Amino acid sequence: MSNSYEDRILRVLGYIYDNPEGDLSLDALADVAAMSRFHWHRVFRALTGETCAQAVRRIRLHLAATALVQGAAPVESIGRAAGYPNTRSFARVFAESYGASPAAFRRKGRLLPPNPNLMSQGDPMFPTTIRDEPARTLAALAHKGAYSEIGRSFEAFSALCTARNLWPQMRQMIGVYLDSPDTVPDAELRSYAGASTAEGVALPEDMEEVALPGGKTAVMTYKGPYSGIHAAYSDLFGAWLPQSGEEPADAPCYEIYLNDPHQVAPEELLTEICLPLK
Fold it and tell me: Which residues cross the membrane (predicted)?
């Protein structure tokens, strides 16, 4: 597959993330890709597995869901920023995908306080086990910026895997988070978006190799949209860890994604949050 097609896919995905409130019609995205409207539609679907309209809707709603849970802007403003001209249309489309109105989704996503210390006396809300994780080698793309924005790097990673027919060599989708968002500014946070690879697979071009050593690990299972995953971290560090008698290892947290946001509803997404232990 010519790199020019990969570049066009990545350019268009980045444009959607950067301009959710803008003109994201098929014609506009074909212009960004520098390809005719008719052929661009077919190329995009062949290389990503979804239509342009499906990608636009999914990304817009993900950005809106994140803003609802992690920000304080009015629902109407969030809807406009996600490209919906009025609150009614935004609420209808959001509820179809997330199973709740924007206001109800915001209330549910804020059930857990952002300060882990506030939870130190409570019982954990998400199931957590300790298990021995295998060592893994990842092929990944580096991401710098807010962890809530790593989706754009996963979009790029998935597009490259599809374009290069790399999926048979990949195993679990995994995100690695190197810094603490409590102490590092959003713009400087470092992470990786990628997947574990089969043994002996050569590192794909333009990707970085990331080694996860494995060993004793606390694994919390979170069910729900990625926009609410920060609550699970509060639960892990503020409720489970103080009661566990365990101590974290000097290694980053990582997330294992058990199903595909292209195929299941946001409320059905399953994520294992992995905290390496001493």
Answer: none
- Within this chain, do residues 126 and 254 fall inside the same structural domain, yes or no? yes
Burial class of residue 198 in the structure, from the number of CB atoms within 10 Å of its CB (0-12 exposed, 13-18 middle, 19+ buried): exposed
The rounded distance, in Å, linking the Cα atoms of 97 and 88 is 15
| All residues at 6 or more sequence positions from 101 whose CB lies less than 8 Å from its CB, including other chains | 91, 94, 95
Q: Are residues 137 and 259 in the same domain?
A: yes
Q: What is the pLDDT of residue 124?
A: 58
Boundary of a domain, candidates 109, 135, 150: 109
Q: Would you state the pLDDT for residue 119?
A: 41
What's 187's domain CATH number?
3.20.80.10
Rounded Cα gap, residues 233 and 25, in angstroms: 37
| Mean pLDDT across the chain | 85
Residue of 119 and 31 predicted with greater confidence: 31
Range of the domain at 168: 118-276
pLDDT of residue 159 exceeding 80: yes
Amino acid identity, position 11? R
Contacts of 158 (CB under 8 A, 6+ apart): 48
